[in-house]
Amino acid sequence: MYSAMYKKYKLLFRNPSGTSRGILTEKDSWFIIIRDAFQPGLYGIGECSLLNHLSIDYLPDYEAKLKFICSNINLNKTKLFAGLNLFPSIRFGLETAFLDIENEGKKHVFPSHFTSGEQGIPINGLIWMGSIPYMKEQLKKKIENGFNCIKIKIGALNFNDELGFLSYIRKEYGKDIELRLDANGAFKPDDTIEKLKRLNEYNIHSIEQPIRKGQIAEMEYICRNSPIPVALDEELIGVPEHKQLALLEQIKPRYIILKPSLLGGGAATDMWTENAVKLNINMWITSALESNIGLNAIAQYAFTKRPSIPQGLGTGSLFSNNFPSPLEVKNDHLYYNPQHHWQTDILLHV
């Protein structure tokens, strides 16, 4: 027998973080906390992370849905999850809260050797948009910290300035640094190929979501003609299971980017993985501005996939009021240090 509650928590960025959609200074997450009625000290926590203009469940009735879930936590799980197809972030939070409490509340939600601390997950270093000097400063720190794969947000600055930044990277650090670009849908379909040709001069590994989602024919054309491998990101969010394979078959991207908290959890992400494998499409897993609670669940899920290429899991240090946790970045890997402890008490009091 369980009881459940939810709580909203505002995460504050240490530094304003820029994307093509604007500057981020804060974001909200909601947490589902499930307690065992027969073991009062046992509880599980799951994070429901919302992103404005990206999450399909950024809706006026979001809190009402959370309230319903918590009030009916003892319903059959199949019934609970069946009503969450339009609320993937709540589905992710509920799934991981249940997994947490079922695994003794230790936040070992996808049990694996990751939590032993002996093995880490390769990750990319993320460069946020800003002034060119600020981006150079971020880059310098990432290189000094041992990152060999750098992901750069582009699309908001003057395009020639962005090209100049890429030129600077190659002149300063050579060609051994792997560069991934993320346009967050900033390009227009009619000039995307020309821009990709210019970007290709700088030995780019891949580019995520060059145009906004929903332009299927245009994206298919871009994937077919781009000199740079294209990765789908936002394009995957909100696509029903029965349409996923057809979407990938039509667009034929080289990569897909999987964000479990935006896709609806581990089980939902597995569906995309299975469809991508059928078509020989490669992939990697990323967080989406969750706190350490959500990041922990995503990292453990990613570890079960035995990743051999860098994943996008280095966002835990972004927030000034994140929850202290065993997660730590060393060089270009994310580790779980079992000697460190979780501090989530602030969520236990209403």
Description of the molecule:
It is built from 11 helices and 13 strands. It is α/β, with parallel strands linked by helices and 350 residues long. The protein has 2 domains: 2-107, Enolase-like, N-terminal domain (Enolase-like, domain 1); 113-346, Enolase-like C-terminal domain (TIM Barrel, Alpha-Beta Barrel). The strands form 3 sheets. Strands 5-6-7-8-9-10-11 form a 7-stranded parallel beta sheet, covered by helices on one side. Strands 1-2-3 form a 3-stranded antiparallel beta sheet. Strands 4-13-12 form a 3-stranded antiparallel beta sheet, with helices on one face. A hairpin with a 2-residue loop joins strand 2 (22-36) and strand 3. The mean pLDDT is 94.
Helix content: 25-40%
The number of distinct helices, counting runs of at least 4 residues, comes to 11
Q: Could you give the distance between the termini?
A: 21 Å
User: What's the structural domain tally?
Assistant: 2
Essential attributes:
2 domains, 34% helix, alpha/beta, Enolase-like, domain 1, 3-stranded antiparallel β-sheet, 350 residues, TIM Barrel, single chain
List the helices and strands and how they pair.
Layout: E1 2-19, E2 22-36, E3 39-49, H1 62-71, H2 77-82, H3 88-102, E4 121-122, E5 125-127, H4 132-144, E6 149-153, H5 159-173, E7 178-182, H6 192-199, E8 204-208, H7 216-225, E9 230-232, H8 241-251, E10 255-258, H9 260-263, H10 266-278, E11 282-285, H11 292-304, E12 327-330, E13 333-336
Parallel strand pairs: 5-6, 6-7, 7-8, 8-9, 9-10, 10-11
Antiparallel strand pairs: 1-2, 2-3, 4-13, 12-13
